[in-house]
Amino acid sequence: MPIFALLLTLLAIPLAYVNPRIGRSFNLVAAAFLYLVYSNCLNIVQSLVVQGRLPLWLALILPHAIVLAIVIVLFRHQLSVAGFFRRTPAATPAAT
Fold first, then answer.
1. Helices (H) and strands (E) in the chain, counts
2. Predicted TM-score (pTM) of this structure
3. CA-based, 20 to 30 A from 56: which of 27, 36, 47, 95?
């Protein structure tokens, strides 16, 4: 649970940024969706450990590593100038 709380706090930082063109509701919906998915994944992993289908070390690392990767991608996107998809400039014909 402490890792869960820490990663949710880190996830809230990039989602708190509001793009005026998109509006506030998009980040709110994304945050709620990510919380629900993360919480459900932890519950699924916990039940798999109890049943003996998943080793404890993998259950401790896997869901948190995935969320940490999402946090890193969101921070990188927020700090980048070009965004997720960079376009290369079109080649212009040389003037003669």
1. 3, 0
2. 0.72
3. 36
